Amino acid sequence: xxxxxxxxxxxxxxxxxxxxxxxxxxxxxxxxxxxxxxxxxxxxxxxxxxxxxxxxxxxxxxxxxxxxxxxxxxxxxxxxxxxxxxxxxxxxxxxxxxxxxxxxxxxxxxxxxxxxxxxxxxxxxxxxxxxxxxxxxxxxxxxxxxxxxxxxxxxxxxxxxxxxxxxxxxxxxxxxxxxxxxxxxxxxxxxxxxxxxxxxxxxxxxxxxxxxxxxxxxxxxxxxxxxxxxxxxxxxxxxxxxxxxxxxxxxxxxxxxxxxxxxxxxxxxxxxxxxxxxxxxxxxxxxxxxxxxxxxxxxxxxxxxxxxxxxxxxxxxxxxxxxxxxxxxxxxxxxxxxxxxxxxxxxxxxxxxxxxxxxxxxxxxxxxxxxxxxxxxxxxxxxxxx
Length: 386
Known about the structure:
By secondary structure, this protein is an alpha/beta fold. 70% of the residues lie in helices and 12% in strands. It has twelve helices and five strands. It has helices at 41-54, 69-84, 96-108, 122-159, 166-176, 181-203, 212-250, 253-259, 264-303, 307-317, 320-346, 352-384; strands at residues 2-10, 13-24, 27-36, 57-67, 89-92. It has a five-stranded mixed β-sheet with strand order 1-2-3-4-5. α5 (166-176) runs parallel beside α9 (264-303) and α7 (212-250) runs antiparallel to α9. It is elongated. It starts with a strand and ends with a helix.
């Protein structure tokens, strides 16, 4: 055993520190005893550097009475040097204070600059593309699974009406539908005003101002009325579904429901999605009426088309299919919004950050899916000549 004692005097106080070094099975054990500070830094660094050069190192801090940041820096630096050589470096028996100082110094050490990633090869790009496609496929399959779960619970509710939660359905109809009426009506009214104003500005150049009625009717009834309504509902309802279910999942209420034998899908998913199925077509009709009223009002103000003339031309030149095309889309939009919102809520983790991420993702996903579905319907109806 080798002993290397040393002492120093500073400010009329004698502070003694001792380093005991021993060898065992090829490992150098350094036992530190006493107080280690800046004045003992040089010999400590020398001993640690020599030990790391010889092989594996174990530093025993059980006898340390004081450890400041300089001594902690020496130990952490030696540990990093050993790690660079793939050698074991163990710190044993640190006190709570020593652990705190070591942790603080370890965090404060400068981080090396990150090496710029190598450019992606064609194989890497294909791999990334494949993983993205596979992830999207899994996500779509999960949504289809939730859709199947919803259909199964609907059939079960028909067979066992006593299990259906009618009170929850009424509550969600109020939340999803009634509370959304003001914003949907106002939005559609303003869209009708904008369509009439912009249409009159363009059609006036050709002396065809009267066709602004057809423009408003076709645009609102076929596309804008139900599409913008679905987007608004997706923004306020998909996020609400995700936040509500996700909060229950964070608080382990869903686990408690399962423990009590309560069917989660029947209690949480069916009332919400069914409320959307019932209320979105009604909101779409309200949006259509508001849009036509706004367009008719602007046509009267800007073009002098009286309400009676607007109504007559609307009835004579607008077929019922224009209205039906918009209404056919409503149930599909409702299913998409409801399923996406409930699915995202069940994916929430145990922290608030996960809740925020899934809520934002559900809104973006629902709006994107609604627009894609609307485009598919538009192409389909154009192909069948409706």
